[in-house]
Design goal:
This protein is of the alpha/beta class and 362 residues long. The chain has two domains: 249 residues, Alpha-Beta Barrel (TIM Barrel); 79 residues, Non-ribosomal Peptide Synthetase Peptidyl Carrier Protein, Chain A (Orthogonal Bundle), CATH 1.10.1200. Strands 3, 4, 5, 6, 7, 8, 9, 10 and 11 form a nine-stranded parallel β-sheet that branches. A two-stranded antiparallel ribbon has the order 1-2. α9 links the parallel β10 and β11. α7 runs parallel beside α8. The longest helix is centred in the C-terminal third of the chain and has 35 residues.
């Protein structure tokens, strides 16, 4: 998922916090409305159905699948079809596909809609070598003409909004040209991550590039990059004029980020950070959704990274790391969660005894 926010050099966006920002629900057409205009980003091996549902319940206005191969969908490959896996309660849900040939992407978009997609999104941002070496993902940014052809083909093929997620460029910034090609091809909206492909996840997202794209096109623009709380969301909105924000790494182990941003956009008080018990309750909900959808075996393997993200940087994380290899059942998962909770509560009680005045001021 890239380097952690706290390790960015220089430190992440600083300065004064902008004033309140208002954004209405974002209407993408075809009956698709993002309310609030805050989106869960597609993330490989992360945004499967259980996590998408948790984020929707916490206030995300739209969720997205991990990127799915267009060729895999065309051939109804079990892996590709299973990655879509849309269920009731997720919508509006976006299926993100990747490919490079207009005719294949158009056909894959049709299949995605058959499988329940409310929106079909083209991945033009993945920077990983194994993806771009075959001409997919961010590699498309080098061919603006092809981008227009792709969006023309996809938009004509389906009766749902077609969108694209791009980066600022390949090595140098080409964002405006790419965005204009998307708009000319019929894209209903676009998401821009404010880093070039060569930047990977290093440094900070360039808000100026996102602002330039917003100025250049008439379709809605969704800002992406370094949004992890209501403050960074305000900065993204205020600095770029974007119509919505997309949250990626900031949602890992922190689905409450969506309720924070949603409350701020409504002009409400920012909710308190989740209590230990609320964190436990949400994580158990996440586990139950996993078990319901994928069964015990797959859940025991895939939930481990989520457990660590939920308790990242706390004594609970250390407890979990010692238990991960021994997780082979649903009971093991629940016992590990309880042990992590106990470790965190124990540290909080110790701090309270050591610094009673500090606790009184909280």
């Amino acid at each position: 998922m890239g380097i952690p926010f706290e390790k960015l050099t220089p430190k992440r966006w600083g300065g004064e916090v902008p004033g309140p920002v208002e954004r209405p629900p974002l209407d993408l057409g075809h009956g698709v409305v993002l309310d609030p205009p805050v989106v869960l980003s597609p993330m490989a091996a992360v945004t499967s159905s259980p996590f998408r549902r948790v984020c929707r319940e916490m206030g995300a206005g739209m969720v997205a699948t991990e990127m799915v191969s267009a060729v895999g969908l065309i051939h109804r490959a079990p892996t590709a079809v299973s990655m879509v896996d849309l269920v009731e309660g997720e919508g509006p849900a976006c299926v993100q596909i990747y490919g490079k040939r207009p005719e294949e992407l158009a056909k894959a978009a049709q299949i995605a809609v058959e499988l329940g997609a409310d929106i079909v999104d083209l991945n033009m941002g993945c920077p990983m070598k194994k993806v771009v070496s075959s001409g997919h993902g961010a590699a498309l940014l080098r061919d603006v003409g092809r981008i227009r052809e792709i969006f023309e083909a996809m938009s004509e093929a389906v009766d749902v909004p077609v969108t694209g997620k791009m980066r600022a460029g390949w090595e140098d910034t080409s964002a405006v040209a790419v965005a204009e090609a998307m708009e000319a091809g019929g894209a209903a909206a676009l998401t821009i991550h404010g880093r070039t492909r060569s930047a990977m996840y290093d440094g900070h997202a360039d808000l100026g590039v996102i602002a330039a794209v917003k100025e250049a096109v008439g379709i809605p623009v969704i800002g992406n990059g370094d949004v992890c709380d209501w403050i960074s969301a305000r900065r993204m909105f205020a600095s770029t004029g974007c119509d919505a924000v997309m949250v990626a790494r900031g949602a890992l182990g922190n689905p409450w980020v969506f309720r924070e941003i949603a409350a701020d956009l409504r002009g409400e008080a920012i909710p308190e950070p989740p209590s230990p018990e609320l964190k436990r309750k949400t994580l158990l909900r996440h586990v139950d959704l996993y078990l319901e959808r994928f069964g015990e075996g797959r859940t025991c393997k895939e939930i481990r990274k989520h457990l660590l993200w939920y308790y990242r940087g706390t004594p609970g994380e250390l407890v979990l790391r010692k238990r991960l290899s021994g997780i082979t059942s649903a009971d093991d998962i629940r016992q590990a969660i309880d042990a992590a909770l106990a470790a965190n509560v124990g540290q909080a009680e110790l701090r309270a005894k050591s610094h009673p005045r500090a606790v009184e001021r909280m």
